[in-house]
Amino acid sequence: MSRQPPVPKRKPKPATPAELRNAIRDEALRLGFDAVGFAPANAGAEARDQRLLRLGEFLNAGWQGDMGWLGERTEQRADPQTLWQEARTVVSLAINYAPPTDPLEVLRQDERAAISVYAQGRDYHDVMKSKLKTLGRFIWDTYRHDLKVFVDTAPLMEKPMAQMAGHGWQGKHTNLVSRQFGSWLFLGEILLSVELPADSPESDHCGQCRACLDICPTKAFPAPYRLEARRCISYLTIEHEGPIDRELRPLLGNRIYGCDDCLAVCPWNKFAQEARETSLMPRPALNAPLLAELATLDEEGFRKRFAGTAIKRIGRDRFLRNVAYALGNSSSRETALPAVERLLDDPSPLVRGGAVWALSRLAPRQIVQRQRTAREDDPEVRNEWREALQTVRGRENGR
């Protein structure tokens, strides 16, 4: 059998920097990105030093909590060229995920779970990465420029780069705010080895507004543009691995995965349009589900219900810990108490501890006293029982 001649490599399409920039923008919008911006990979020493200063203040204050990885590779976070020396341009790409309804409405239905808007659809990491890789292939196949793709998990300061690329500015809640999309943007980046014309950076348009600062249930903002993650409900319900501090548990309300309060209240959201990426739209099963129903999930049920979503990342035990706290904050005692009592026998000490706290909020002393503290062998859960008994005794004694 004769050998087939090799397929000749396609020559790169010639293009000026401006033409390449326009081609990337057009292709990105065709693929479903809602905004495309370009910024220099070398932002300059002043910008780099300012980013490092802000990050250093955050880390030195200990506000990162369990997120120790934020203290690693700090130079790379502040400077894309430290991460990849060949980088000359940052292509900042954004997908709008604005919800169809006000996410604050579910907070008034405390028998139901409040799940952050971003987690109610398909995991945005998967959606963003797929689109970025497709765009990257287009750039390489057509123009043969080296590139690297990043989304969220890479050590890049995405929000300052998005501001440099003209998408918006970091608001007082530290999240990106866009004049076109409000607070509802997912971000991803492509670093290119070729220098392209940059967009104009966006300036701050928060003015005197304090809406995002004042609405925070746990007062996680010590100052405008500063976030103490250890008090942030998104951090507590997603990143924090152990029991949540007792003083903060009542402030969680029915928020079991993330928190949208500071995002949803932003006045710039009045210009936002509903997300057009269908895979990011809320799944019916994740839009305000009943807490008592979620409390019945075993490992298999958890994996099946949250397959393909960001929620699966925290695992069943941490998720049901959050559900237990929310049940303890519920005013629907008739449905909440039986669900809590079932969780007292859960295999996970983390879940049992949350259930004990919830029981102390919902049940009289007689019920708390006759529960299963005698056969609890986990020291942290036994301590929760002691605290629970003190709580109900204090409540009945008027303290």
From TrEMBL:
Active site (record annotation): D152 (proton donor)
Subunit architecture: Monomer.
GO molecular function, one term: cobalamin binding
Primary location: cytoplasm
Biological or metabolic pathway of the protein: tRNA modification; tRNA-queuosine biosynthesis
Domain 4Fe-4S ferredoxin-type, chain residue ranges per copy: 197-226
Keyword Glycosyltransferase: no
HAMAP family with a match to the protein in the record: QueG
Subcellular location: Cytoplasm
Pfam families recorded: Fer4_16, HEAT_2, QueG_DUF1730
Record's protein name: Epoxyqueuosine reductase
Name of the coding gene: queG
PROSITE patterns linked: 4FE4S_FER_1, 4FE4S_FER_2
GO biological process, any: tRNA queuosine(34) biosynthetic process
UniProt-annotated binding residues for cob(II)alamin: R77, D152, L176, L187, S234, C259, D260
The keyword Nucleus is assigned to this record: no
GO cellular component, one term: cytoplasm
